[in-house]
Design brief:
The protein starts with a helix and ends with a helix. The longest helix has 21 residues, at 123-143. The chain has helices at residues 2-5, 12-19, 23-31, 49-57, 60-70, 81-86, 93-102, 106-118, 123-143, 149-169, 193-203, 218-228, 243-260, 274-279, 289-299, and strands spanning 38-39, 45-46, 180-186, 208-216, 232-236, 263-267, 284-286. It has three domains: 2-71, Multidrug-efflux Transporter Regulator, Chain: A, Domain 2 (Orthogonal Bundle), CATH 1.10.1660.10; 93-169, Methionine synthase domain (Methyltransferase, Methionine Synthase (B12-binding Domains), Chain A, domain 1, Orthogonal Bundle), CATH 1.10.1240.10; 175-299, Cobalamin-binding domain (Rossmann fold, 3-Layer(aba) Sandwich). The protein is globular and about 65 Å long. By secondary structure, the chain is an alpha/beta fold.
Length: 301
């Protein structure tokens, strides 16, 4: 799907396919001002992925199509969900995303993520297969001295900005499960991206989120569990500077979680070793966002 995902804006045909309607409908909505559009130098219509996502999220595509049918039109929206989910990622996408992030191209990076979501890929799958590999590429090159600190910071900021745009594209109809989760990272871990990805993975499934952000001690997390009474607690760890102190506080947190009936998910490289996992038992030690997605889905049934 590189022809769509790697491009900044969408053609009328691509927008129509993602909305599950005819190209004629897209052009009519654009001409009527219902769907924001841009024009190329040659006069061709182009659509920002964010605008297409907002149009679909608001249910306007289906409602407008239904109104057209009532008015005598013989058009029938074609839902392409199955083919969208069967679509595979282009293996070049992580590299393309990496280059966009390092270049500080906010709109292009956001467009790539939103395009993939519009094609039917879940947030978890986008994170695992495209975004995380691009982030690892950034980290590896920085450690090898091939990227500067400024470039690494710019890539991170661009990714965060793109995730904010992706968040506005999530289907609002899925945001009513009644379930709540707390998300954070361990104390002295200031990496924001893993927390944001966990938040988006859950929000895409309709979970309400209490985002405590980065560097949250387990004693503070215990207080938050008692206060907010969540069904799920997700803790990320990219670095683990004080495991002994954290282990002492973890017992109190575990007790508070059991009392609240909350499932605990620990993820990230800080929780990968078996020795650490024995010291920090959890309902799930997640290695991918897909595992978090599946665990949350099981709790939601």
């Amino acid at each position: 799907m590189r022809n769509i995902a790697g491009r900044k804006n969408l053609t009328s045909k691509e927008a129509a396919r993602l909305l599950g309607v005819s190209e004629a409908s897209v052009k009519r909505w654009a001409d009527g001002g219902l769907l924001p559009t841009l024009k190329t130098a040659g006069g061709h219509r182009r659509f920002r992925p964010e605008d297409v996502a907002a149009f679909r999220r608001g249910g306007l595509a289906g409602e407008t199509a239904a109104a057209s049918n009532k008015g005598g039109s013989h058009e029938r929206p074609e839902v392409a969900r199955a083919s969208q989910y069967e679509a595979t990622f282009d293996e070049a996408l992580p590299r393309l995303l990496f280059e966009s992030m390092v270049g500080g191209h906010d709109e292009e990076t956001a467009a790539m993520l939103v395009n993939l979501y519009l094609q039917g890929h879940t947030v978890a799958r986008i994170a695992d297969v495209v975004l995380c590999p691009a982030l690892r590429m950034t980290g590896d090159l920085w450690q090898a001295g091939e990227l500067s600190v400024a470039q690494e910071h710019l890539a991170t900021r661009t990714a965060l900005s793109a995730l904010q745009t992706l968040r506005t594209s999530l289907d609002a109809r899925k945001r009513a499960s009644g379930r709540s989760a707390i998300c954070c990272s361990v104390e002295d871990d200031f990496h924001e991206l893993p927390v944001h990805l966990a938040v988006l993975t859950l929000e895409a499934q309709g979970w309400g989120i209490v985002n405590l952000g980065t560097s949250t001690p387990f004693y503070a997390l215990s207080e938050a569990v008692a206060r907010f009474d969540p069904q799920l607690v997700c803790v990320a760890s990219t670095v683990f500077n004080h495991p002994d102190r954290a282990a002492r506080e973890y017992g109190e947190f575990s007790t508070a979680s059991r009392r609240a009936g909350a499932s605990v998910v620990l993820g990230g490289v800080g929780f990968q070793s078996e020795s650490v996992r024995r010291r920090f038992p959890a309902n799930l030690h997640a290695e991918t966002f897909f595992q978090l997605e599946c665990h949350a889905s099981a709790l939601d049934t």
